[in-house]
Amino acid sequence: MRLTAQQMLLALVLVMVSSGNTAFAAAAPCVVGTPLTQSFASGASWSLCARTDEQHGLEVSQVYYRAPGDISRSVLGIAHIGQILMHYHDEELPRAQINTAGMPRTLTMTANNCSGTLLLNKGTDATLCSRVEDNRITAKYAQDPGLQSQRWQLSSALQREGLVWAISIAFREDGQITPGLSLSGRARLNDEPSDFAATLPNSGQYLPRATILSTWRMSFNLDDGAPDSVQQFEFELDEARGNRRPMQVTELGTESLAVVKRTSFRGWRIIDPVGAGYYLDPSNSGFSFIGSAYNWARFDVALTAFKSCERYALHNNASFVNEERCGASLDDFVNGETLAGAQPVLWFSQSRTLNPTNEHWPVISHVHQSFTLLPFDWTPTSPFELIR
User: Fold this and answer.
1) Do the Cβ atoms of 214 and 84 come closer than 8 Å?
2) What global pTM score does this model have?
3) What is the pLDDT of residue 331?
4) So what's the pLDDT on residue 22?
5) Which long-range contacts (CB under 8 A, 24 or more apart) does 142-147 make?
6) Are 22 and 15 in contact (CB under 8 A)?
7) H/E/C letters for each residue in 352-384?
8) 350 CB contacts (<8 Å, ≥6 apart)?
């Protein structure tokens, strides 16, 4: 696929526009979105295609990572937020925030909400923010100086019903990926007291409690292009063997739903045919979403075979694509189909309860959710040992 003259001009603009952190145009053309790369002093680099979708904001695709001294390797085919539910506790059903009536508005990124590079993705308005931040020590041994690391973060923002949802993905120098969602803005108010609301002093109004559920859609595309596979890891306590926790690995070969099992440190790994891949660490999942509607929302992980039209966990457009009907939600997508020969899609959900206090009025304090994808046997040894 060849780049149009407009796409080439936009890529050139992205190289030139900077406020301290620079995003460089990638060499490979993008099927969708704008090509970007970020290189670090260690020699590590990321390259990807990015865009802002009017419904779900930030979306990345064709994501590649190169460790120091290594070749560039394919990581993700596509990743974006798949749904956000805002469940006020005095209402029966949660409110879906994306791909529904009264669609969210993509916010223009400016110097007021972006401390890095403004990326032009929609006319003359900037809709993406790119910044490089110091992260933490990557490695340290004995009295050697610690290797400081950085991360490259892309973010966009959506506004709906007074709420602002900041959607971000951070790409770390050591190959880790951290998708995140932040909430701020003004929540709905009640005029009458309720067991589900907090009283605001001297206002005569009440701020309802709420639970937030975010669901990410991630289709991996590891290294060699062959279909990837998914494994479930568990470390059950074995009291008969001196309270050891032997590792148990289960291959997941069909579309299915799963929950985070905290007592066994359950997690999931996506691997290529030679066993290299990424591990989804659910350590930040401290809450569960409980509700009578939307069966999929009660689970932390959904595993499906890739279909381009299965984009949203709720309020998906149920249409025919290539003579196959796509369902209206994850409850339709997960139907026990085999994953053999198919590229798996991982849907990961996190929930967080907003118990309002006086500090959440008139503007909600920063509420954040995130999780981490960790490289697993991605390189034979630590590539950062070579640069000491």
Assistant:
1) yes
2) 0.87
3) 94
4) 43
5) 144/388, 147/42, 147/384, 147/387, 147/388
6) yes
7) EEECCCHHHCCCEEEEEEECEEEEECCCCCCHH
8) 213, 214, 284, 285, 287, 300, 369, 371
